[in-house]
Write a structure and sequence with these properties.
Strand content: 5-15%
Number of strands: 5
Strand order of the largest sheet: 2-1-3-5-4
Number of helices: 15
Distance between the termini: 56 Å
Helix content: 55-70%
Shape: globular
Length: about 350
Amino acid sequence: SMAFLITLQRLGSSRSMPWMFAAGALLALASLTRFAGVFLGIAVLAQMWTQFRQARVSSAAPWYRAIAPEIGVAMMGAIPWLLWKMRCSQAIASGDAPTGAYDRASHYLERFSNIDPYALFSTIETTLFSLRRAVETRVDSAILSGIIVVLLMGLLVFGMVRQFRTHGVQPADWYVLAMLALLLGDLVKPERYFLPIAPFLIGYIILGLRDLSTMLYRERSLLLVKGAIVMWAAWLILLDGYLLFVGNSDSSRGGFSMLASPHIESYYRGRDLDLYHAIGLADAQAPAGEEIGSVGFHGKYVMAFAGRGYANFPEEEFVGVSYMVVRDGSELSSQIDLKPWQIVEKLDSHTVYKRGTN
């Protein structure tokens, strides 16, 4: 994504075929790597509009020639992605592949139904700083957490405004704004989409911090900005060390380093360790090659822990499944009919069932 944006910027000043092909190839690669790469097309449209306006003002060349390189980039990026989508649709229609969540229109209606700017900035703060999360593990104060998020929100927006006033809204900025608009309406695991726009968010924050410190402390502004960046880096290193050798903030994992957690049972903790043991019990008794049912958790953990296929309730029927693992207290655990099942083992938070007479 970053290589594409740099190449697209170079194409804006050097209108040559090699830069057009390079930008188009990078756009195709980014789009096929992850769906978020498609939104890089916003930057292409923004640069196309800029070139169109310049051509109309200067009258040096017909407008369609002025935007031809951007059209070429868009086509090179879009055609491979559309061909791949057609191939996926054919595989689903022929029954060679299951219908994924992204192929259902209701999936988007369900996800883009809650606009919450505070939640978006809260996630940005967690991704870039994790100060609020660290505070919440020590102090139960929603007000303090809110102050941290609001301060970051103000600094980020201030930096964006200063950037746009100084340099205008560049094609890369339009891409960042489009991604933020997408995440504003889709708060399902948005952290994964922050990586390609994180350099820009960090840049806006540092720019806002620099200009704000210049207004308040003119002589010491540069020193304050450098000090803030050093403290930020030190804080992140400290958090990384804690994650590697102590564990995560909700205590569901031990240290991520194998020096701290040499075995899987020293890595998983609490409910997740209970799930590991429950799946192990079901795996030890279920017939070879048979699927294990999962209720209240995603069956991918069955595949990870036992190497078996799985059936998720309620998405799939438990046909041919003789053992299932149920997460106690989950909403789904109260919906499944337990009459034909008998308890094999009841752990702290999970129960192993066998098909039979209770």
